[in-house]
Amino acid sequence: MFTPQGPTLRELAVQALSSIEHGYDLLAPKFDHTPFRTPDAILEAVGKALAPMGPFDAGLDLCCGTGAGMEVLRGLCRESVTGVDISTGMLAVGRSRLGEPASPAGAGGAPTVAFVRADARALPFGPEFDLVVSFGAFGHFLPRELPGLFSGVHAVLRPGGRFAFPVTAPPRAGSPWYWALLGFDTVMRVRNAVRRPTFVMYYRTFRLGDVRRELARAGFRTELHPLNEFGRRRDGSPRARMIVAVREDAPAVI
Q1: pTM score
Q2: Average of per-residue pLDDT across 72-91
């Protein structure tokens, strides 16, 4: 897709007609050559913004895919970096890129790396992380799933731990990007209405106001950090922000 190394339209169509898990298993070998992979500029901006808040001991990349976000964590964490994803194929590519050493934590100045297959909505960890990051995965969750997702992240963070992820400003109404995203979401909704299993991938349902409200309900205190590398819109607001949600002592009662 868009490059000779990327998937063909036929391959993308087969992926889109599969479940999320199987679709990404199919896409995994070519995923890093698609626009779906988070650009390096965003990864680097988030790493730069998080650096003054660290160092951290243990980090988790939620929906890690092929491990691009884990590269950010390796520069921020002293002891361990873990990636979790539901796709076996994506995890296999990540292991081939980053390795999965069995050396003791901190050996040679590098954190240990581990990949775990699990559903992000049912994380198999206790409160053992100081930092959780996620890049470009939230379109795979319906709005009604956010309370459970955020509560699960809250549960795997140590007190004072941080949950960080970038968000971009929505495109201006009527712009080419606005119509492109609207068209994509419409196609996916029609596909999910007529075919099972569903493939949830919507780009217009993760709204900043809703996200901040659900994070607060899950027991987080949220901070907004502009990612100045991406400039500002005409109204002066940042084109991209990093949300940092800090774990409070106990989740709020819903």
Answers
A1: 0.85
A2: 95
